[in-house]
Batch of 3 targets.
Target 1
Amino acid sequence: MVRWFGLIMLVLATALFAETQEEAYYRAMKAEEAGDIPAALKAFEEAVALPGEYTEEIQGIIRDYKSAMGVEDDDASSLDNASNPWEFHIAGELGLYGMHYKETGLEDAEKGGDLFLNVNPYFDYTTATWSHTFAASVQGDYFLNNDEMSLLDTNDWNLVLGLEYTLMGRGMLLDAGYDFNIEGKELSSDFYVWFEKDLYRFEKQRIGAVAWAYYQTSGPMSFAAYASWHRTAPEGLNGTVYVGAKFEADSAFDYKTFMQSYATYKQAVSTYNEYWQYLNDSIAYMADDEYEAYVANPPAEPSVESIVYRQTMGKWFGPVFRSRISYKFKNRITVEAKMNLFYGFAVGGPDSDYEKIKKFNGTWGASVSWKYWKMVYYLGLERNYKHMDLPNFYKGLYRESTVLTQLKLGVKWDF
C-alpha cells in the first residue's frame, strides 16, 4: 500500500501544470459570451486537442462555427491534428471499498473490503470528424477479511485483463470490449458492446437512442435498448438519464426435476431394501420353488446416476432506468448522485413456478470528488438492493432479499 501511495505521489509531483480540457472549454465559452468569436474558436480548438469527456461536443461546436464562417473541415486548423493525430495516455484508479452485506435470514451481517488497482493505457487517434481509442486494462482486486464473507462467495483475489475499442464522432458513440477474468481457479470471459446515436441537440443537451449487449461465457447475458438524455457543461449541472427495457438470461438450476428424480431414487432404494430384507427374513420358511420364483424377478438396483442435475436458462424482461446527475463547482469539487433500477418478469425458466418469479435490482448512491491537476480524489457511499418475489415452491431455495452497502474512497488519474 505504501509503495502505491509513493508511486501516486511521484506521478502527482511530476505532472505538468497543463490546462485541462474543462478549463479550456470554460475559457472558450467565456470568450463566446463576450462576443469574441475568433478567441472562442481558438480556445475550442485548443480544448479539443486535450483529453477529456467533452471531445465529441467540442468537435460539434467547432464544425458549427466553421459551417457558419464558410470554412471547410479540411482547411488548416488544429482540429484535424494532422501533424500528430496519435496521443498516448495512461489512466487508472486505486481504491478501497468497505463492504457490509446482509441477506434474508442472516442474523449477523458480513463485513469486509476490496482493495483494487486498475491501470488502463490507451491510444487516441483523432481526425477532423472521428476519434478512435484503442485501450488495454489490467485490474486486480484483493479482498480483505474474505474468510468472513462466505455468502458473498469471493476469492481472496481476482485479476481482469481487458481490451477495448471506442469510436466517437458525427453524433454517435460505439464502444466494444473483451475481458478475461481470473478469479482463484475459475476462468471466464465476457464481451460487451454499446452503441449510442444522438437524435437531437439543443444548447448543452442531447437526446438519443442506445443499444447495449453483454455476454459472459460462464452464463449471464443481457440486451437493452434505451432512450437517452445528456446535459454536459464544464460547470454547473450535468446529467445522464437512460430509460428503456432490458432482456437478460442466466443459468438456473432445475430444482423440480432434481427433487422429483431424487424422490424416485429414494423410493427405488426403499423398495430394493425392503425386497432383500423380506427375502432374508423369510428364506428359512420358504420352499425351494417359492424361493426360486421370488428371486427370479428382483427389482433393479437403484443408481445415483438416475438423479438429474440439470442447468437451464432463466430469462427475464422488464423496464430499466439509469441516471447519473452531478453538479460541478468552480473549485473543482463535484457532487454526484446515481441510480440504476431494473424490474424483471421471468419469461422463461425450468418450470411454470419459476416463471412466476419477479425480481427487482436497485443500485443507488452519492459521491463527492475533487479534481487536482489530472487526479480526481473521491469519496462515496453506494447501496445495492436485490429482492425476489417468490412463489411457495422457491421460498427457501433462493434468497428473497440482499443488501450490499459499500463505502468507497480512492483516486483516479489520466495522464
Note: Residues 53 and 378 are 18 Å apart (CA to CA).
Target 2
Amino acid sequence: MTLPFTSDPVPENWDRRGLPAWCYHSAELFALEREEVFLRHWQVVGHISDLPAAGDWLGFDLLDERAVIIRGQDGVIRAFMNLCRHRGARVVEGSQGQCRSALICPFHGWVYNFDGTLRGVARPETFGEGIDKAAFALKPLELEIFGGFLFLRFRPGPQPSVAEWLAPYAAEFAAWQSERLQPLNVVSWSNDLPVNWKSVRDVDNEGYHVALAHPGLQDLYGRDYRDIYLPDGLHISYGFYGDRPGRGWSVRNYVKHSPLRADLPPHLRRNWAYYGLFPNTVIAFTPESAQFYQDLPLSPGQTRLTGRQYRLAQEDRQTRVARYLAQRIDRETSAEDQQLSIWSNESMRSGHFEGFHLSDLEYGLRRHHDQLRALLPVMQRNEAPDAAEIRALNKELACQTLARP
C-alpha cells in the first residue's frame, strides 16, 4: 500500500540503550522536566466542539499551573490562567462547565468577562485610590487550534506554532474531518497510575509488544502494524485491518460493522491511526471515532492518564455499533498497557536492572529518549549525579552543547 509519508529510517548500529534507571525516580530531574519539557511544550486540552456556546469552558491543570479555556461572546476561544488577580483563587473549578454571563471568583466576587477583562470588583471603595481594571485582567496563555483540537502552553517554548509543527498531519486530519467531530456524552476520563510518566510513554512508543501483550489488537491489525518516524517529535502508527474476519467476538464484529468510508483516502479506510506528539500526547482516529489521550505527570512516581473521546458529526446505527466495539477493544488494550507500565516502572528501582537493550521495533522509544536528552543533557549520565548537583550539572552540559560548532 502506498503511503503519503517517508519515515526516517532506523539507523544501522544505533545505540540500543534507553534512559538510565535513575531518570525514572529522581525528584530533582522531575523538577527540570516540569520546567523544560511540560510547561514549555504544547498540550492538547480539548476540541472546539467541547465549547459550542459563549461561556462554555474547559479546565486544565498541569504541575501546579492551571488554565481555563473559554469561548467568548464574540465566538473566539481563549485561554487564561485560572487565577483570580486578587488572591489567586480559581475562577472556575472542575474539568468543564458553563458560565451564563461572566466568570465570578468564588472567593471575593471579582467578575471577569469571557475575554478575560475585569468587569468589576466587590467593595471597590476599599481599595484606596481604586482598581485599574486594565491592569488586573486574567493572564492570557498561548492557545492555537489545529484540526479542531485546542492546544495551549504555559510558557514560550522551543516548538514553533502548532500549525507549522503539525503541518505533516494537516492533510490526514482534514481527511478524517477532524474539525467536524462532536464530543461523546461523557466528560474527560482519567486514571492515576503509580508510575513515572516516562514508563507510560515507553510502552506506548513501540509496537514490539503488540503481538504478545495485546491479543485484541494483534487479532485486529497486528500483522499489518507499522510505525512511521517523522522529525520534530512526530510519530505515526498505522494499524491496517479487514483482511481477516478476526477470532475474538469484539474484533470479529468490529470488522463486520466498521463503516467503509468512501470519503477517506484508501490507506485510511481500514486503519486505526495514531498521531504522536512530543512529549506526552496521542491523537487517534478510527473510521467511526476519534480521541486524544495524554500522560500528565503528577509527581516522580505518579501519572494521570487522561483524554477525551469524539464521534462523527453524523453517524448511523452501524457506525454507533462499530464505535461501541472499538471502545471494547481499546479498553482492554489500555488495561494491558497500564499493567505493563507498572511492571516496567518497578524494575527501575531494582539493583539487578541493567538497562534497556532495544529492538529495531522499539526505535520510537529511543527517539523519545533522545529528545529528552537534548532538552535535559544531564539524562546522558548513566549514573545518578548527586541530587543537589543535578540542576547545575544540567546547565553546564547544556552550555557545552551550545558551544559546540
Note: The chain has a mean pLDDT of 95.
Target 3
Amino acid sequence: MRLENLRSGRRTVLIGSGVGLIGLVVAACSTTKKPSAASSTVEATSATTASPIAPAAPKVIAKTAQVPVGSGVIIDDIVLTQPTQGVFNGLSAICTHQGCKLDKVTDGTIDCPCHGSKFNLDGTVANGPAKLPLPTKSISVQGDSIVLN
C-alpha cells in the first residue's frame, strides 16, 4: 500500500505543478500594460502629421542629343538607341549569350566583343551565337533628357 500512496502522491505533485505553471503563464499574459487612451491619441496624431516621403527624382542617364538617329550609345549598363527620329529604346548592355558587356554600337547593330553576337537597335538578335533578345530597360524622355524609370 505504501508504494501506491507514494505513486499517487507524486502524481498529485506533478499535476499540481503543471496547473501552477499554467496559472503563472496566464497571470503574466494578463499583466501586459495596455496603452492608455491618451497615448493612443498621441500615436495617431503623430502618424497623421508625419510628412510624406517625397518620391526620388528620376535618374537622368543621357541627353537626347547624345543618341544618334539610326544608332545608339552605351552608358554604364544601358544601351540607348534611337532607331528613328524621336524613338528611344533602353536595353541591357549585357549580352544574352554568355553575359559579356556589349562594347559598341556601329552600322545599326549593338555588338558583343566576346563571341560576335550582334543585336538590332530594338534589342532583337541580328547575328548569333546569342539566341535571346536584350532585356529592355524602362526609360522615358523628359524634355531633352532620357531618364531611367
Note: The chain has two domains: 1-31, 59-148.
